[in-house]
Design a protein that fits this description.
The protein has about 170 residues and is an alpha+beta fold. The chain is built from 4 helices and 8 strands, in the order E-E-H-E-E-E-E-E-E-H-H-H. The chain has one domain. It is about 20% helix and about 40% strand.
Length: about 170
């Protein structure tokens, strides 16, 4: 059974105007994508689809959490995400990606698979460097044992080298 079938919108039977779809994105969604770095999530997506005569406007309202590893202490935590993305689908003669958020599909098409769009939007909401958020007092919520070890390692003095002796050299 295809677990991504819920993300296929059969738009031919929809009337012109606004339509709303709701999706709960959890671990099973990301398990369907090979080599996905995301394995844990609890995200709610409200999709507003505005069907016009020659195009559709899809507005994704995204809110929830994604399981990530902290770049500093390597502990897992749930990163809160939220955002809004728009995607435009135009009708034409053949498939063509006109832009990052504009797709042209043939007039004969009757459905649209949005699973890859959702995957991309969620993946791109994760910052390059992810760190535990600070608590209300401004203190790090990273693993204290790992932070202590990192501080110990960073305070070690570098061994002196032969070049250090040249700093004191003063030519006459």
């Amino acid at each position: 059974m295809d677990k991504l079938k819920d993300y296929i919108i059969h738009f031919v039977g929809l009337s012109l105007g606004n339509h709303r779809f709701s999706y709960l994105i959890d671990d099973t969604f990301f398990a369907q994508f090979e080599d996905s770095e995301i394995s844990r999530s609890a995200v709610k997506i409200e999709l507003d689809l505005n069907k016009l005569e020659r195009m559709m406007i899809l507005t994704f309202n995204i809110e929830g959490t994604i399981g990530v590893n902290c770049s500093r202490c390597m502990d897992d935590f749930d990163l809160e995400i939220s955002g809004r993305e728009e995607f435009f689908v135009k009708f034409g003669d053949e498939y063509l990606e006109e832009d990052d958020n504009v797709l042209i599909i043939p007039d004969t098409e009757y459905q649209l698979d949005i699973s890859s769009l959702i995957y991309d939007y969620l993946y791109l909401m994760i910052p390059f460097r992810v760190v535990h958020p600070d608590d209300e007092s401004g203190n790090s919520t990273c693993n204290p044992e790992v932070i202590k070890r990192l501080e110990q390692m960073s305070h070690k003095e570098e061994p002196s080298s032969a070049w250090d002796k040249l700093k004191d050299f003063k030519p006459e």
